[in-house]
Design goal:
The longest helix is centred in the first third of the chain and has 16 residues, at about 60-75. The protein is built from 7 helices and 10 strands. With about 210 residues, it is of the alpha/beta class.
Amino acid sequence: MLTQRLYNTGQVCCASKRFLVHKDVAEEFAKKVVEKIGALKQGMPSEEDTQIGCLISEKAARTVEEQIQLTVQQGGKIVLGGGRDGAFIEPTVIVDVPKTADVAIDMEIFGPVVPIITFKTAEEAIEIANASKFGLSSCIFSADQKTCAKFACELEAGGVVINGASFYRSFEQPFGGYKYSGIGTEGVMSTFDEMTHTKSIVLKNIL
């Protein structure tokens, strides 16, 4: 999950942008995330041992920096990273993010940032997830497959990956989102539908 979130330095449309974690395991989750991300080497993309590179431009990095600062102003707490050096954004983990914060709703951080939002019940998690006007992709992690099925049916997103990252995208599957995350889908078979007009011809009184 974290590998896919940080792929291309977090600049992937269907990578996870919000992390909803049950309050009972949130502290342990955050600790493990910090350990894993903190061990990654940041450097120039041209260097073979680099694991986290720079963003597409310094302008993009400044935007991510401002979004991080806004999330902190709205109640979040940085436990890893948060800094910027030119086009480089330090891999960042933010905990205690309120469900009313911009990043918890409609603000997409297009960079190596993991905002963690806690929930108490499945219903609250679904409410938080669906509060966004966007709905491209989503993922669910649970050992209980009934819980996974419940979330998969109720999440307002074009794709749901169970026990895997939402970064997953098979060439054959339809790819597209709900709400403001696009109109229609792309993919091998769905492309035919997108490029085809359907017409109904009704014959009446021809005999």
